[in-house]
Each structure stands twice: as structure tokens, then as C-alpha cells.
Amino acid sequence: MSHVVDAAEQWEEFVRERYDPNKDKENFRNYETATPGVREFYRLNHTFQTREFAVAKKADYSQLNRRQMSVWEAMDQLETVVDDSDPDTDLSQIAHNMQTAEACRRDGRPRWFILAGLLHDLGKVLCLYGEPQWAVVGDTFPVGCAWSDKIVYREYFRDNPDGQKPELQTRLGVYSEGCGLGNVDMSFGHDEYLYQVMKPYLPEEALYIFRYHSFYPCHRENDYQYLMNDHDRKMFHWVKEFNQYDLYSKSHEKPDVAKLRPYYEELVSEFLPAQIRW
Ligand SMILES: [Fe+2]
Ligand SMILES: [Fe+2]
């Protein structure tokens, strides 16, 4: 099971580099430094994330019929797919999740926001069901309308069968102006899946964070505004606020997982039942 989340790690590193605030302007959109693994990852992602694929995966995983488990079991499960031979990965998944949450806590963020920090990547348990990397992580984008020029490695869409369907290649495609993101199908991954799992339990602001935190073409590049409605724009305030913690909390010191665990157990049980459907 090792190497299963390799691309996940590499993708996150690549995203952090891309939006590094200290990076000079010239290099800002130069992706040449990306490792071959990242490029190959995007080639697969852009080739196979068709509208048909994304809609089918969403319908399938929305049933939440895979298993029943607690949040902590999900974290432990995720641990088993981490490649421990990777020298860059000195943090366990739980430590990584806690680190994000701790950064939120240090800044005095509300409790639901801290919890969102802890949970936001748990959808990666999709790896456990045998989903390939390109169906779990990566920047997300709407399927069913033209691909934004702001999507990284946009050229890799050249082999995506949706490119041959003119009705999916207009600005609005199957959507209407300002229809709201809730009516838009996104490329499938850990964002959409965790949104479906957490929908009954967390406030809407947290659900937006889960569902759109990898939607970089929108929350960082400000594209696809024409699909959003006013409510989305209001909620995206939180997606943007959250993004800084997602990107930049990794460099801080390692959290003491054992010491922090009671605090987070209490926080989790404030919002979630002991067992949830996945
Ligand atoms: Fe994520
Ligand atoms: Fe993350």
C-alpha cells in the first residue's frame, strides 16, 4: 500500500510552491520546476476527469454505503496508505491535520473553523477504496463547460474526450449564468466526497471549505465567477480565509499528537456522532 499517496504529497507541495508569497513575479506561472511525477499526475487527471466520470463518481459516493467509522478511525486508516519511505514526509496524517487545525486555533478562529482544519483532507480515504490518485487529489474544476485558462497544465486536457463535445466547450456549457456552485458538477476528488460525508453535521461555511478548498482556479485565480451566485461569493470568504492555513501551516513545528488529542476529541464530539457513514 505504500506510494499510494505519493502524488497527493507531491501535488500539495506543488500547490504551495505555486502560491508562495515570496516567489518573484517572473516565476509565478512557471511550472517547469514541477517534478515529472506532478506533471504526469496532471496529465492523467486532465485526461480522465470527464463530465461523465465526475457525475458518476459523485452519484456513487454520495450513497455513503462504503463503511461506518469514526473520524479517528478514518484518520488511522489514512495513515496506513502513507508511504513511510518518503523522506519528505516526516509528519503522520494526523499530525498534519492537527497542525492545520492548530494554526487556526492560534489565530483564535471559531470552533467550527478549527474543526474544518482538522477534517478537511479526510476525504483522501478514497485511496482506500482503490481510487487512483487523479480521482482523489489535484486542483478541481467544473466539468460540463469550457476549461479555464487558469487551470494548471491546461494543455493536458487535449486528450480529454469532453474536448470533442462542443456543447461542453462553451463558456457556460450545460450551466446558466450565475446558477450557483451547488448546481455545478466539479471534477471528482476528496473535496466533494468529504462534503457529502459531513453535510448533515457541520455549518455551511465549513461545508464550503470541504467542497471547494482545491478549487484554485476560482478561490485563488478568481475565474468561474459567472457560475457563482451571491451566496457562493459570501461563503467563499471562508474558503479563501482557510486556504492560507492549508498552504502555510506545514512549516511550523510538529504538533504533540498525544497531548492535543483530548482537545480534538472533545471538538469532534461537539459536532459529530461517534460513528458516521462514509
Ligand atoms: Fe485537500
Ligand atoms: Fe490540505
How are the SSEs ordered, and which strands pair?
Blueprint: H1 6-18, H2 36-48, H3 51-61, E1 68-69, H4 71-80, H5 93-106, H6 111-119, H7 190-198, H8 204-212, H9 216-219, H10 230-248, H11 257-271, E2 276-277
Antiparallel strand pairs: 1-2
Helix pairs in contact: 5-6, 6-8, 6-11, 7-8, 8-10
The structure holds fe (ii) ion (2 copies).
Report how far the terminal alpha carbons are from each other: 20 Å
Number of domain units: 1
Oligomer: single chain
Gross geometry:
globular
Query: Main β-sheet, in a few words?
Result: 2 strands, antiparallel
Tell me how many strands there are: 2
Bound molecules: fe (ii) ion
* Average pLDDT, all residues: 90
Q: Low-confidence runs (pLDDT<50, min 5 residues)?
A: 83-88
Radius of gyration: 18 Å
Spatial strand order of the main sheet: 1-2
Task: State the order of secondary-structure elements, H for helix, E for strand.
Answer: HHHEHHHHHHHHE
Could you explain how this protein is built, in words?
This protein is mainly α and 278 residues long. It has one domain (6-277). The chain is built from eleven helices and two strands, in the order H-H-H-E-H-H-H-H-H-H-H-H-E. Strands 1-2 form a two-stranded antiparallel sheet. Helix 6 (111-119) crosses helix 11 (257-271) and helix 7 (190-198) packs antiparallel against helix 8. The longest helix is centred in the last third of the chain and has 19 residues, at 230-248. The radius of gyration is 18 Å and the shape is globular. One fe (ii) ion binds at residues 120-121, 190, 213-214.
